[in-house]
């Protein structure tokens, strides 16, 4: 390598470092993301989600019909001013609709998973039967809990967000059990809808022939031990949009900045992949961990809070896209209105103002997209229907539906992270909210999640696990493997993947390891399913987790561009940090 090239590179890095890192901040605390060497898009460790709609349904079914106890039937009759019902025969415990999501209800020392009232019959809920002690039952924990909605909610005024049905039991949901207006446990009118909304149906290939968005993690170049994919190596075949993940935001000025000095070297190579009428290159901002502890903990909430701060962000973002040649912006705010993620209640309204003002400023020159979570509580804070007129599309993150964050509440059992039945369930609030399916891209994970099983005699769904799976050789993160690493393990160990029936995922087992994942087969199946439900496209997280097919860029002096970056610039970047 010529000394002049090294000097030029070092000079460039010094200038880049000075430009993106204000003197009042240092690279390790302000803009060097703590999640640069990661696989997953979301950081769910800050406020671990639980499948509240499924858990609520389980608790409801445990108190309905033949599953209701004598004490509950008496309590229900008294609440309605009716005489006690006749004695009923005991029945066996019901089987919940999502067995893999179902914790035991409750008991002494075991509160309800959703923090509802637990009574001495082991039933969770919000009715007097659950929360008020009587001659027949005693409330043993969370006895002052309020229902999600309806007459037993806080001050009896809470409505279901996203217009879901408010059940007799005070749980919001989207099933017949929540929405029925008949029988002993009717839906509560005035607190949401009282009819089931079905998913849209189509016969054309709206998704597979529509948008195909892929994220690209720039941090893989500097931080992954092997299997790095440079922008010029990305397989762009069939893609319509390519998102560079992630840019950062200055927490004081709200200017958009590179998350790492290395990214400034990758931007030109990345945006050069764009092609008129074929492929657009966008910048994605934020991401998992951005709202974690640190200087940017409240940045999203702060920048969206006033017209002046929103204008500062929008102006900077416009300049940033113009400078580097991006054609659109994707916002990945994780998550509005969540206190543990630096949010506050007014985030929902402020986000709508931010997106509306971005749309007005961008016109037709730049596109806007937003990453949407699957968790109901997170999703409700976005209010998607209010954002829909101003975005080009939504990227629905249909993965990370199960993981280690739920073990404490739901039990450490093997669960697939992107099973189609779970995806269908998480989409129900979207349909209730009235979101146009054509605005949605179905998320597809190019990685798998795994665990170390408790016993090699039990390696199927719902078997117990003792810890996370071993880290991959290149990605180095326990509990998760890139698709490339999974493919290598299958090849090296001569494994035969198992198709998970009805799940639209596969699994592999070896030693005491269990991994569930998507591959080209399941991705194609999910795309066909998305076609049937009128989705406007699909989205990949992330394209750098498989092999690229591009060729390394050649520099003007004939040296390999990737070798220059990897062999010289990367060590300098690490030293610079």
UniProtKB/TrEMBL annotation:
Signal sequence coordinates: 1-18
Disulphides: 160-172, 165-179
GO biological process: carbohydrate metabolic process
Ranges of residues in domain Chitin-binding type-1: 146-196
The protein's Enzyme Commission number: 3.2.1.14
Family: Belongs to the glycosyl hydrolase 18 family. Chitinase class V subfamily.
Ranges where the record places region Disordered: 76-101
Gene Ontology molecular function: any one: endochitinase activity
Start and end residues of each GH18 domain: 210-577
Enzyme category, top tier: hydrolase
Entry protein name: chitinase
UniProt keywords, alphabetically: Chitin-binding, Disulfide bond, Signal
